[in-house]
Design goal:
The protein is mainly β. It has one domain: Sandwich (Immunoglobulin-like), CATH 2.60.40. Helices cover 13% and strands 36% of the residues. It contains 2 helices and 9 strands. A hairpin with a 2-residue loop joins strand 5 and strand 6. It is elongated, with a radius of gyration of 37 Å.
Length: 181
């Protein structure tokens, strides 16, 4: 290639570069940072409790058992635990009780059918929709029942003792927003 042709190509390329860069605008940039904050979670706890003495259920007239139960009786015991927690919108949504069992089996325990009755928090029934749990300690009561099945009772179940095994209560947290929220 001759010198003139090379100069013309170089001049044309320079002109294209200059025209292409004519529409570019430069911006300044800068960075900064904001200090983060923390959020703390609450908690819910259940403290082990005790079950009271067996007594006749309301359907059998209520009251203490003085001499012994007989086939057809329904008796109950109230197990009391302490529930506490912290957190905005904290509530109890579900209270589950592991089916009670007896510590040892014998002909009497074979005739008793265990069940679970009501659950209350500070004396108020816990509704299916859950209940708010305010800060502090609260009394959780769960009723365990035992029905002495009369239709299958035998003399082998006379003069025996049935001792209730530990009753496991599981409390599940619920999100209960404040009214109007």
């Amino acid at each position: 290639m001759d010198r003139l042709t090379k100069a013309a190509i170089a001049t044309g390329g320079a002109a294209v570069l200059l025209l292409g860069g004519a529409g570019t605008v430069a911006f300044w940039t800068a960075e900064g940072s904001a200090t983060g904050t923390s959020v703390t979670s609450g908690n819910i706890t259940v403290t082990n409790g005790t079950c009271g003495a067996w007594e006749f259920s309301p359907q059998d007239g209520g009251g203490p058992i003085t001499t012994g139960i007989v086939p057809g009786d329904v008796v109950q015991t109230t197990c009391t635990l302490t529930v506490s927690g912290t957190g905005d919108h904290l509530g109890i949504g579900d209270i589950a009780v592991t089916d009670p069992t007896f510590a040892t089996t014998n002909p009497l325990t074979d005739q008793l059918t265990l069940g679970v009755g009501t659950a209350t928090l500070d004396g108020t029934a816990v509704p299916a929709t859950g209940v708010a749990l305010t800060a502090g300690s609260h009394t959780l009561s769960v009723v365990a029942t035992a029905t002495f099945t009369g239709a299958t009772a035998t003399n082998a179940s006379e003069n025996l003792t049935a001792t209730l095994q530990d009753v496991t209560v599981t409390v599940t947290q619920a999100h209960i927003p404040e009214p109007g929220a």
